[in-house]
Prior knowledge:
alpha+beta, five-stranded antiparallel sheet, 6 helices, 16% strand, two-stranded antiparallel sheet
Amino acid sequence: MMRSVLLPRLTSHILSCTRGSCLLTGRISHSVHHHSPGHTPIQQSFRGPLAMYSDLSMQKYNVIYTFPHIKFLSALSRLKLLQTAITVVILPPVYILYLQGDIAFFLVGYTTGIALFAGVMLYTASHFLRRVVGMMYLDPSQTTLKVSHLTFWGRRHDIYLPVSDVMTIGDTGDSSNETILKLKRYSNSQTLYFSTHFGRVMDKQGFEKVFGSLR
């Protein structure tokens, strides 16, 4: 008796669930695969600044200029970190010894003066060192210039500039026979420095494409 009553209900419930599942599956499939005419999925149409930067960094570039001493300048720039650490370690014990009467005030003043002078000199030098160009590259189409220079921490940083935005040597007011040359842009006032005397022009044709004639 119970079997005859429950069996039709169970069968009806299973059929309704099955139909609902099929209907739900059909809706999901329809919502995923259906696009209105002329509509492009977001994943295919979006290209933000990150994607553009990735494209630039993944391109192949030809070296047109290199500065062999950039590693030394990088080490010098990082020296300020060591000097700061030494100052933090040495000065507190010196002050403690002075307060205890173990050393004279002259020694405290001398130690403090040397530490501060060295720190100011290194941080000032670092401000100029991060403007020195280490390497320059040109893409095969000769439309993008990749410039490598130092950061405040002495690490390498690459920037990508349109060749049309880079001033020639003549436009910067420099002469090609000067020891230090400026790398400037038409769009902003940021200035970097490079030298054809201390550095090496690896690709003269590509270099002159960007900066004009070296003669």
